Amino acid sequence: QRASLAHATSNRSVRKPPNSAKNNCTKATNHRFIGVVSINNKMSSNDETIIALQKRVEFLESSATFAATQQSVQDAQAEMLEKLRSIREAIAKDGSSSSANTASSKEMEALMKENEELKKKNAKQAYRIEHLVSSIEELLSSTSKQ
């Protein structure tokens, strides 16, 4: 019995009395502190959730804007492609007419050569005519003196 009594008293001396005012105060403070920490943890996890949701919304908005911008860029590129095709067709048409222009430029060169030859021929004939006229005048003047 003594051993069990000594063991029981030793357990009592180690234990703090449960009705102690100091012990109640620290328990209440600890409980309040734990409550504040858990509220702060809940708030911080809520804040993290809100921040994560805001980031997702921003990403979705930016991707929607990107999709809209991408569509407008594709529309502008399609317009530009149509314009370039029409320009290419116009150049192809002018290219075939430029070969006609090349042919007409060859014709122009031939005509210019012919024109130069005609000018030379005309100048020779004009000289001959002047010479003939002067010869006729001499003959007339010599016959009129006679």
Contiguous helical run count: 2
Order of helices and strands: HH
The total strand number stands at 0
Poorly predicted runs are 1-14
Number of domains: 1
Q: Would you write up a description of this structure?
A:
- The chain is mainly α.
- The protein has one domain.
- Helix content is 95%, strand content 0%.
- The protein is built from 2 helices and no strands.
- It has helices at 2-14, 21-145.
- The longest helix has 125 residues, at 21-145.
- The termini are far apart.
- The relative contact order is 0.02.
- The model is unreliable at 1-14 (pLDDT under 50).
Keywords:
mainly alpha, rod-shaped, 146 residues
Brief overview, please?
The protein has two helices and no strands. It has helices at residues 2-14, 21-145.
